[in-house]
Amino acid sequence: MALTKVQLVDLNANELIIDLDADTSITADTDDQIDIKIAGADDFRFTANTFTALSGSSIVVPDSGLTLGSTAVTSTAAELNLLDGVSGLVQADLTKLAAVDSTAAELNIVDGGTSATSTTVADADRVVLNDNGTMVQVAVTDLSAYFDDEITAMPNLVTTAATTVGALDSGSITSGFGAIDNGTSNIRSATITAETAFVPDAANGASLGTTSLEFADLYLHDGAQILWGADQDVLLTHVADAGLTLKTSATGDDTKATLTLQTGETDIAVNDVLGQLHFQAPDEGTGTDAILVAAGISAVAEGDFSSSNNATKLSFKTAASETATEKMSLSSAGLLTIADDLVIKDGGTIGVASDADSITIASNGVVTFSQSPVFPDGSLAVVDLDIDGATDIGADLADADLLLVDDGAGGTNRKTAMSRIKTYVADVTLTTAAQTNITSLGTLSALTVDDVAVNGKVITMTGSTDDTAVLTVATNGALTLETTDTAAAAANIQITADGTFEVDGTTITLDSAGDIVLDAGGNDFNFKASGTEVLRITNSSSDVVIKPTVDTKDIIFQQYDGTSILEINDGAYAKFTAAAIAPEATLTDASTVTINALTQSVSKVTLGGNRTIGLASGGVSGAFISILVIQDGTGSRTVSWNAAYEFAADTAPTLTTTANKGDLFVFRYNGAKWLEVGRNLALTLS
User: Fold this and answer.
1) What is the pLDDT at residue 378?
2) Residue pair 578/565 in contact by the 8 Å Cβ criterion
3) pLDDT of residue 220
4) What percent of the chain has pLDDT over 70?
5) Rounded CA separation 418/374 (Å)
6) Structural contact between residues 616 and 625, judged by C-beta atoms closer than 8 angstroms
7) Distances (CA, A) of 183 to 167, 226, 628
8) Are 357 and 351 spatial neighbours (Cβ–Cβ below 8 Å)?
9) pLDDT band at 178, cuts 50/70/90?
10) How many Å apart are CA 210 and CA 645, to the nearest integer?
11) Which of 623, 632, 581, 580 is nearest to 604 (CA)?
12) Is residue 93 within a helix (H) or strand (E), and if so which, with residue range?
């Protein structure tokens, strides 16, 4: 279609689309401004007397195509870029630059470039320095000489409030460095190694550690010594693998090494310990008793200390499966007290200062006195009098023989002839018991004795014809009583020396008007049938354990007629022939109804008002309880439940309100809550 000449086109601020895909246009929607969009983006803008290339767009001018005023610009773009960012240049400056033959890389180094290369510095290398305003090259050997002089002399090394001298980070100080004297300041290090010694600046001039900064462990070598005193007169020496030796170096008379144990307590009371030594094997592998304190020596106050009293005893302690306790003590008065026997060497003596061997005890226990012993009047009983040294007369007693007699039992000993004794006993009637060495030619109709000594092993007693009882003492003191009747039926009782009691008979009957007590120190009661143990009752930490001792067998409880009531089965369950009944308990009606789950597992309560069902006490995991809640004759009673009761859907039930009706609830205990198992509401109870 041919276009005709257009006289005037008014777009009225609308966009003029000038390409087929509608992404290039001209728009004048702002007064005195034209925007040109190419490929969907605003690139250029015309305003009064100004043409602007927008962000992301550029203006390309061909070489020699730019005229400023009437003068054409002949510089290339590369030439113009050299002046980018340069200001204040004049022709003289450019003339100076003409003489510069440095490369761009070299100039960039001076400019402060951040790139670096690895190179080895040699003596001939140069460093650029500002020499009082003039840039010069200086050999690195000149710098080396300068720093060497400065480090050696250090004329200007000071520390001010604004200056901090950093720490040496590595290296060492050799022997040529000389002494380090930092005045009263401190030296701090992780480990300090001394090749010869640590010494103070003067005798008694320094301490190791302070009252608040104490050293930990001190390690000394085999044979090491600790020497005390200005003249080292007291030495504590290590004896390798053995212990310590304390010695004084003084050689004068009565010199001695002294170790004093002092207490800091300021008010010593009776039984206070002033000092003590303990002996212990803490690393003994068996542990328990073995690592307790096994022995010790303590100094113990016998009373309150004062200006006139410091009475103290020495307590000697030893152990036997225990922490060591006092077994011997030496009092302040010199009294030696021991807890057990005193044993001296064979042939040893006991005496006093003036008679050291007053008592001598031989190896066989015979005691010899160097002086005649003196006993208080009446202190020596007749039964304890054993007169030795005389020999047997070697003949029968005669009337003229004399005996010692306590005359009238008054303590006066006199002689009496055997004839007097014969006269005294010639016409004696035996009317009392406990007579000894009596021979009867006839039959004693009755005889009562206390102790009887039988010089034989067998005593035979005969009752009716052929009915006998034989008492026999066997080896090791075993005593057997065997009874036999006329039919030759025998029964035996045997008691051995260790107290074992055995009865062999057809039927054994224990008949006591009082109690029969079976006391087994070994904690077991064993029941056998024909020699085979079938049942054992055991004390286990005061619990009574009853168990069959034949495998796969049960424990059965029966009625008189033989009907089984309960079987404790080998399969670890209990079987009841009939139901196991928990009797129904009637709970006490109160504002809070209490329940004992052990004694009232089946219970009922009649409500006399609005109540709270309290927590069931005595709950055991797995236990069941049932509660029958009954309305009284009034009815409409309500209950609230303790939080320990958990109901279905976490919602407590609403009770039946009808008078005399009952609601039954069953719960199971899980150790924390009573969980509802079931409920049955609105029950008619009669």
Assistant:
1) 66
2) yes
3) 87
4) 81
5) 31
6) yes
7) 18, 29, 95
8) yes
9) low
10) 67
11) 632
12) helix 91-98
